[in-house]
Please model this.
Amino acid sequence: MNPETERALAELDLRLRAVLPEAYQDYDAVAPVSMGSAGLKYDRDGKVAWNEMWATFCDLAMAGGPPHKGTLLSPASAAEIDANRQRYDEVVAEICRGIRLVTGLDPSASDTPGWICVPCLDPTAADWLLRAVVMENVAARRDGRFLDVPAGPAFRLEKEIKNVVTVMAKTCHYWEGHITPAQQNAIGALFEAMASRAPLAVPALPTDPVGEAACREAAAAMGQRLQSRLGLSPAAGDRPGWVGVECPNIRSAVWLMRALVVTNVLARREGTALCLPVDPASDPSGARVLDALGHVHALAVARRVF
Model:
């Protein structure tokens, strides 16, 4: 291994240790094994007692633990919401109630249909939670100190509603309970330094068929370049705003996902598929994301994890 590669791997390691809670400083030892799903508990009024359901949580997907969901949970479309507005309002109210109980934050319906707005304590908290939530395979977006998470009229109490509340409970638990204020400040400085070079690469969030078609076209072109430039195979799937990359195993997918996130590219995984953001507006050719992938892929090869 040449000195330049050794320096790049050392820098990557420093960034990972900077963003992970102290318990995960030996992040290579984290296994993607689930603890199982907690059952719903109810209070005397018959409502879900969200704040009484968890004594502990699975390892963070950011650290290498299992993502909470196997595939991405996305917001409903405006058409779906308009077709069943009453049920949508009920779902939003229950997710807000759950998040309020498990985090102490005060969420509300976003001005954009399909999203719930969660005011975080500061922009750094929202920035870290954005990465952590998406790596758990729950869609999220951020504006300043406000984090948005998904909702839809088809969300079921024991499934999608629980998914959103659980992921917020889990990620906020680690941010508030396992990362010291000093480390939070250091994370903020790291995010600011990375953003000064290039903003966080995030997926487009299309709201109409035209936007979805543009995302799929851009993803297909990125898939072709993955093969021609890096010799990597695109993964099956059709999720607007994302393109998948087949990895040899879960370990390599986790390694690349974490490396990309501390290279300021939002990433997640579904099984052995690494999922990369697609945004035809800010990165029309996908050059920035593919350049970042090429960099971390070379490091993964040097580390013999790919």
